[in-house]
C-alpha cells in the first residue's frame, strides 16, 4: 500500500494488522481518484471508516486541506496515527475512535460541511443508504460535494437517496464504487 499521487507520491503506508479491515487496493484507489479528482484545491473530507487512513491520506496528498477520520477499531486508529505521522499530516487531521452513526451525530452538532465523504464500511455491516440519507438530511455534504462509497458488489444501492443521486458506479472484482452527488 502506498500513496499513488500528489505531494506524498510513492510513500509506503502501513496496513491495519489482522483481518479486521479490508484495505482499498492501489488499483481501486487510483480509479476512485480518477473519478472524483484527480486533484483538489483545498477542501475538507470525512472518512467514516478510516481503516489505515489510506484514502484520506491520498486525498490530502492530492490537495485536500483537512480531514476527519473515524474508525471504531483500536488497531485501525493506531495505524491511522502512524501513517499520518509518516506523512507529517498530524496537524491536518482529526482522528476519532467511534462508531459511524455516533460520529455522524457528533458532526451534526459541530455544524460542519464536507467537500468529500468516504464510506467504506466492512461488508458485513454495510448500512450505506441509511448513512447517506442522514448525511443529506443534516447537510453534512456541501452542495458541490461528493460521497464515495466502497461496497460489496452484492449490495445494490438505490439510484437516489434523498436529494443525492448516484452519478457513477464501477465494479472491480468483489468491490463496487458508487459516487453520489446533489
UniProtKB/TrEMBL annotation:
Record flagged with keyword Protein transport: no
Chain residue ranges for the region called Disordered: 1-24
Superkingdom classification of source: Bacteria
Gene Ontology biological process: rRNA methylation
Keyword Hydrolase: no
Biased composition (Basic and acidic residues): 1-10
Coiled coil: none
GO molecular function: methyltransferase activity; nucleic acid binding
UniProt keyword terms in alphabetical order: Methyltransferase, Transferase
PANTHER family: METHYLTRANSFERASE (PTHR43542)
Protein name, per record: 16S rRNA (Guanine(966)-N(2))-methyltransferase RsmD
